[in-house]
Amino acid sequence: MEKRQDLWSSKLGFILSTAGAAIGLGAIWKTPYVTGMNGGGAFFLVFVILTLLIGLPMLLSEFIIGRSTGKEAISAYKQLAPRSLWVWIGRIGVIGCFLLLSFYSVVGGWVLIYTLKSLTGGVIGEQVNYVALFGETISSPSTTLLGLGLFIAINVFVLAGGIQAGIERANKILMPLLFLFFIAIVIRSLTLPGAMEGVKFFLMPSFENMTSQAFLYALGQSFFSLAVGFSCMVTYSSYLKKDVSLVSSANSVVWMNIFVSLLAGLAIFPVVFSFGLQPDEGPGLLFMVLPEAFGQMAFGQLFLALFLMLFLFATLTSSFSLFEIIIAALTASGKKRRVPTTLMIGLIVFIAAIPSALSSSTLADFSIFNRSVFDLTDFVVSNVLLPLGSLLIAIFIGWKMNKTLVKEEFLTANRHGEGLFHVWYYGMMKFFVPIVIAIVFVISLKG
């Protein structure tokens, strides 16, 4: 096996970067608003349980595939199952990440624009119509394209530096800042009048509002929020040294993700309830409801800016992993250099994202299957490619990959975990996890 030249410098660097990849739109934006739309505490409790039952073994599986080969996604499956169709798991991952970036970067651009506006006092105020402001932002071609371009440019700048000097260095700065800003916002939120009503809504389970549809949303969110399914974590773990426990690393990443989801809820719901707003506002919670709420509190401008900055950090750390799987696939042979390849990919993603960026403006009347380009790309990625990739990875690790190799990676630096391997992990990946993902996949296709 060819030795990787650019590895994570430490276990901490790997965990922070992997957690950064997982902690993004899913944990900070989607989990709170989906929780709000599905009854609060009961949904969040089910989400946590399913994250441990489904998300953790799936994340560990991608770690095992990547570290065992020391190769990026496509090459990893080629090595483990040569001359077979299993290589398409890696290819689906690369294609999926590219499509995901074509609309994820648009949302990243919105967050970046809102962050810049908040720093200049342009987001909240007595005369600001928050719904209209968001509509004006996403319906302005120049604004959305500017945000998109800046967001991708930041990614290119960081990723051109490689693993240690680029991704790891950025995450070691951004992730601690994310937690610091989050804690400051949570403390402020919890000191508002009526804040405890929001805490009760978020943390006290009331299963009377927990429908079967809500359960399925929690199930999908449990593994989607960990960035598994597109083999991003296969690529990240391929840069990991052999003396690191994959089990403890996966466990750390999962609990960090749950903790951030918890902080997001504690930052958002007390504010929403304190000012008599609705927790079930859906995707507009971040861009329309929260600015209105922050605008009514002391030092609201400051805390909204902090919240948007931490959201921007999380969006960036996730996008690093999406770009990296594409960059690694194209530079795997050693024939292409990283910097020009990164620049080329950044330009291609920018061009591919233009239709999604203009879906609320120039292309507002254009639709495919009654969906805008943005919504159609989101549907294909979230409802087709992501669950398909997750299902194939689960089947591969449980039924195709050599069990001895799987066990060896599982037990590396974790020599007392043989019972855990047989009783929990392998049985889960062979039967329970693929069956559950298959159910979600079938139902998601109807969405």
From TrEMBL:
InterPro entries: Na/ntran_symport, SNS_sf, YocR/YhdH-like. The chain crosses the membrane at residues 12-29, 41-65, 85-113, 145-167, 174-195, 215-240, 252-277, 297-330, 342-364, 384-402, 423-445. Pfam families: SNF. Its main location: membrane. CDD domains: SLC6sbd_Tyt1-Like. Keywords: Membrane, Transmembrane, Transmembrane helix, Transport. PANTHER family: TRANSPORTER. It is found in: Membrane. It comes from Savagea serpentis. GO terms for cellular component: membrane. PROSITE patterns: NA_NEUROTRAN_SYMP_3 (PS50267). It is a multi-pass membrane protein. This is Sodium-dependent transporter.
